Fold each of these.
Amino acid sequence: MPVLESTSSRINDVDLDDPAIKRSAQLTKALGHPVRLTILKLLIQRDTCFCGDFTDVLPLAQSTVSQHLKVLKNTGLITFTSSGVRNCYCLNPEGIDALSECLKSLTDMFEKTDRPDCC
Amino acid sequence: MPVLESTSSRINDVDLDDPAIKRSAQLTKALGHPVRLTILKLLIQRDTCFCGDFTDVLPLAQSTVSQHLKVLKNTGLITFTSSGVRNCYCLNPEGIDALSECLKSLTDMFEKTDRPDCC
DNA sequence: ATATTCCATCGTATTTTAACGATTAATAAT
DNA sequence: ATTATTAATCGTTAAAATACGATGGAATAT
């Protein structure tokens, strides 16, 4: 078996498990759905908080909205607080900060305009 | 178009088909995978261009890489040019501009820190 | 002409996402 | 105590995403 094709990772290989890449992918993936983008927008614009606030306004079943909220929660973008019969979802400052950093970092990355055309 | 300024048909209704929301979701979704993020990074960092440049470096089958390139192409982020036996993929200036605008708009949206805590 | 290289596409399998209705647990109201 | 409300979770279904190997077409090399 040729040495170059051995199981050991090669020098020039890319590490897809790079934490920064993985986190950026996770964050952008969480944004990558109209419903989740809308929920975040509502959380910023209005004093919406409860699951019902979103189901009132979104053309989706309550369970579906709940599922999207879970995704945002698992990504760290929103927090969950059980306040009585209603459960309150708020923007999570740490998560939002991380997201802002991520978005800015990506913006910087894509704004390098001094690249010559390769083709 | 800034995400925050998108229109909705009724005051209390949300339009999930809003073009700005849909486009932002599409763009962020395209970024939402480690492989695609890596491909874009390679396109920016180096003079990589050909499909083989990516397959050399990514621990994935050629057909899988090709599939991810297709997603980026369909999202408008890269262009495809058949240059002989090799096919060249480059960053698409229009798409990248749109992405930058989108990312900046999202950054602005999430950076509104004058929101009071709701809970 | 033949062989080789590159890589898009096809077919397929597996996993994940997205959506729904039904159920259930908890609280609040009567 | 009983009923109503809220919303998470469960179970299911359908669709999309992800990955792979195989195939084939086009350009190049021999």
Amino acid sequence: MSNDLDTVFAALADPTRRAILAMLLEDDMAVTDVADPFEMSLAAISKHLIILTKAGLISQEKRGRVKWCKLEPDALRAASVWMQGFGQFEPVNLDAFERFLEVELPVTDDP
Amino acid sequence: MSNDLDTVFAALADPTRRAILAMLLEDDMAVTDVADPFEMSLAAISKHLIILTKAGLISQEKRGRVKWCKLEPDALRAASVWMQGFGQFEPVNLDAFERFLEVELPVTDDP
DNA sequence: CGCATATTCAACCAAATGGTTGACCAAAAC
DNA sequence: GTTTTGGTCAACCATTTGGTTGAATATGCG
């Protein structure tokens, strides 16, 4: 039984894609600008964006020759709901979130 | 073991592994009993359990010839925290996040 | 128009993933 | 002891993944 959690979690499993999501958290971006800080080819980033789109994590809208990418947090929320099934979480740990921001957000260092 | 988001999300991306986690939510289980409801081989389930262990989502303890599997929600918690960053706020705002925590998620003791 | 820019497509590649079998080892049961 | 049970290991296989290039397709600009 393959549901959309498969694609959402698989999309989140790649550090490049998580870095892209972090970038889109700040603002909508064109594909070329998303690709800019990464060392890989534009085609590779384009593929990552397609994966994120199929997972519903972002949406892409073409205006002119520029395709704009926009964060769509609803899919993340769905995954989060799945996790609530494991309801034994302690409340969200702020320290962990801050550590995430320090480690994950500087996308220029991303492998 | 590792709380790396890569391995945690990759582990969660497989429906068999999510089903295993759901089973372990009810109680600790031996490897053979985990494998029982699935149609695949015991070796395949054993591999899935190793992946879950490496992701830190479960732990395995051998008592006698039986290896017991136990849910370890810490890694899930880390992933959940990561997702909260996207689900709740448009621009990441730590102050707002902290305020949100105080209002919406009052700290309680370990359940 | 002619050319640059933005993005994808197609073919290819190496490595990882998810599964299978059969041999193997340790612990328990008879 | 011998056999059964619990579980992993090793080798293999098919498919997917993440990346590369180079060509192709639009769109905008001078």
